[in-house]
């Protein structure tokens, strides 16, 4: 069975957010300055966000890692 995700894009803010779960969580920094992880209380990744998403193109894709607890 496929898992559902939710995706939000705010063109004015140039912000993209993807959520794998609707559970409560908080944002956590990553090694990439444009990417934040959303994690739950146990540290499990439940989503991520990208700020300045329009600067990434086919020729210059985003390359970032999400870490699990």
Task: Describe it.
It is a single chain. This protein has 69 residues and is mostly beta strands. 0% of the residues lie in helices and 38% in strands. The chain is built from no helices and 5 strands. A 5-stranded antiparallel β-sheet has the order 1-2-5-4-3, with no helix packed on it. Strand 4 (35-39) and strand 5 form a beta hairpin. The model has no long low-confidence stretch (mean pLDDT 91).
Please specify the SSE layout and strand pairing.
Layout: E1 6-10, E2 15-19, E3 26-29, E4 35-39, E5 45-51
Antiparallel strand pairs: 1-2, 2-5, 3-4, 4-5
Oligomer: single chain
Structural class: mainly beta
Poorly predicted regions are: none
Number of strands: 5
Percent in strands? 35-45%
Mean pLDDT: 91
Helical proportion, percent range:
under 10%
Reading the helices and strands in chain order gives EEEEE
CA-to-CA gap between the ends? 25 Å
Strand arrangement, major sheet: 1-2-5-4-3
Query: How many distinct helices?
Result: 0
Shape: globular
How can the largest sheet be summarized? 5 strands, antiparallel
Q: How large is the radius of gyration?
A: 12 Å
Features:
5 strands, globular, 69 residues, mainly beta
Tell me briefly what this model is:
This protein is 0% helix and 38% strand. The chain contains no helices and 5 strands.
């Amino acid at each position: 069975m496929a898992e559902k995700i939710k995706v939000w894009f705010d063109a004015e803010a140039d912000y993209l957010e993807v959520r794998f779960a609707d559970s409560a969580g908080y944002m956590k920094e990553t090694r990439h300055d444009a990417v934040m992880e959303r994690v739950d209380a146990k540290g499990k990744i439940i989503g991520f966000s990208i700020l300045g998403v329009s600067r990434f193109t086919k020729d210059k894709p985003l390359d970032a890692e999400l870490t699990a607890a």
